[in-house]
Amino acid sequence: MTVTVDIPGGQATFREQDELTVGASRAVARALRRVRRDVITAPTIAVDGQIVDEGTDLDEGDEAKAPTDLIGLPIDLTEDDLDATWAVGDVMILAMLESWTLPGPVPADSAALEALTQPVYMALQQQVAKMQRAEATKADQFGPDGVEDPASPTGA
Which element (helix H / strand E) includes 71? Predict the structure, then answer.
C-alpha cells in the first residue's frame, strides 16, 4: 500500500517498506553499513525547522542535552561520517519515493535530491522518517501470540 502526502508545491507518493524492491532494500542495507553505530543511535534535536523526534520539547537549553550540531548529528563526525549519514537518508528517499506531482521526474540519484529545495527535501525526509518509525512500532507489537490486533475479540 502506498502513502500520499502533501509536500511543498505538490504531493508525493511513497512505497511502504514491504513494497521495496530487493535492489532498493540492498542499497539501504549497504548505506547503513557505512554509518557509525553511535550516529544511528544518536539522539536527534532540531533547530529552525530541522527534523525533530516526535515529542521533543525544544525549550531553551534543550540543545545542550546531547553533543550535537544544528541538524542533530554528533559533533565529532568526520566528512566521511557525514557523507555516509546523508547517503542513508538519500537512499531511503530514493527507495521509498514512488511518484510526485512536482514538475520533472522523480529523483533517481543523490545528485537529483541535492538539487531540490530545502523545504521539499525536508518534507520527503520527514515522511520517510515517519514511515520508518511506524514500521519500527509495528515490529514492537510482536508477542508470544503474534501481532496484537486491537480489533480482534482476543486482542491478539
Answer: none
Residues 6+ apart with CB under 8 A from 1: 16, 19
* pTM exceeding the 0.85 threshold for the entire prediction: no
Which residues, other chains included, contact 47 with Cβ-Cβ below 8 Å and sequence gap of 6+? 58, 63, 70
**Cβ-based neighbour number of residue 26 at 10 Å:** 13
pLDDT in tens, 126-151: 999 888 888 877 765 555 555 555 66
Instruction: Cite the beta strand spans of 59-144 per DSSP E.
Output: 97-100, 142-143
**Does residue 38 sit in helix, strand or coil?**
helix
72 φ, ψ to 5°? 85, 15
pLDDT single digits (tens) 53-77: 544 454 555 444 444 444 555 556 6
CA distance 134 to 116: 26
